Amino acid sequence: MGLDPMLSNFLSWYRPLLISLQRSSLLVALFIQLLTLFTISLLGITLPIVTLSIFELAVLQGISAAIISHKLKMPIWWVPIHLIFIPAIITTLALTLSPLWFCGAFFILILMFGKTYQTKVPLYLSSHKAASVLASLLPKHKDFSLIDLGCGCGGLLAHISKIQPKGNFFGVEAAPIPFLLSKLRTMANSSNCRIQWGDFWKHDLSPYDVVYAYLSPAPMESLWDKACKEMRPGSILISNSFIIPGVKPEKCLKLNDLTDSTLYLWRI
Ligand SMILES: C[S@@+](CC[C@H](N)C(=O)[O-])C[C@H]1O[C@@H](n2cnc3c(N)ncnc32)[C@H](O)[C@@H]1O
């Protein structure tokens, strides 16, 4: 076989791998971990000169993975994750805990964050300041309805449904544990606040006067398409922290909270 066919053979499997790696930071992270694990293990086994303990080798692997992640320009939060991932596993294994603890913790994490890989929206919560500013924007003397898309643990809805009795509040949440927490937290205000388990992309936005979203940059363009198709003229879309690329908001309200976030408002 000549060099050219060999090269094209190699590229035929290597190129799709590269493309899918570029598409998903999770795959890139896995690739970095496997590469550094393999290299450091090889180093530990084959070079008798390297007399490091398992933990020291793990630290070396963590540092290499963190450097590669930085060089590949992965989002900055991957650097500490790479740095401590394997050292943390080695340390935890040394504690000789029952495997049931890991199984339990893994299960809880899946129920809280399992959908993040699909939705590209992790769980983080609106600040108290965001809830207060949002409440101040809502009508005081007439009925209205508001939906929180991905209501997390229900803190925002519990807070504003208490101080805005004229409103009808609705939350949709896809992750099971946050959904249950939302239900519990809003139980006292169940007359004007309802929580549903499910996917907000399948939920019609036309009944709402205000749609609140605290998501991530990933779904914002699709959210705008959905809002334009479904929301009524005059209703308001409010996004905490994330803009819609190419669509100028009608108002931007700086919150001066811990994460220095901004509320962006678009009137449909
Ligand atoms: C950043 S948190 C915001 C939580 C809450 N809205 C707040 O402001 O405190 C985003 C939430 O949206 C949920 N989520 C993401 N995509 C979703 C979807 N398609 N359907 C329902 N919930 C979703 C996530 O599980 C997460 O709990």
Strand content: 5-15%
Using only C-alpha atoms, the radius of gyration works out to 24 Å
Instruction: Tell me which oligomeric state these chains represent.
Output: single chain
Q: Poorly predicted ranges (pLDDT <50, ≥5 residues)? A: none
Please report the distance between the alpha carbons of the first and last residues: 63 Å
Please report the first level of CATH classification, the CATH class of the largest domain. Alpha Beta
User: What's the architecture of the largest domain in CATH terms?
Assistant: 3-Layer(aba) Sandwich
**Number of separate helices:** 10
List how many beta strands DSSP finds: 7
The tally of structural domains comes to 2
- State the major sheet: 7 strands, mixed
- How would you state the average pLDDT, rounded? 88
Characteristics of this structure?
268 residues, binds S-adenosylmethionine, Rossmann fold, 7 strands, 2 domains, alpha/beta
Helix and strand arrangement:
Elements: H1 3-23, H2 25-46, H3 54-71, H4 78-94, H5 99-113, H6 116-119, H7 128-137, E1 144-149, H8 155-163, E2 167-173, H9 176-185, E3 193-197, E4 210-213, H10 220-230, E5 236-240, E6 251-254, E7 262-267
Parallel strand pairs: 1-2, 1-4, 2-3, 4-5
Antiparallel strand pairs: 5-7, 6-7
Bound molecules: S-adenosylmethionine.
S-adenosylmethionine binds next to helix 8 and strand 2.
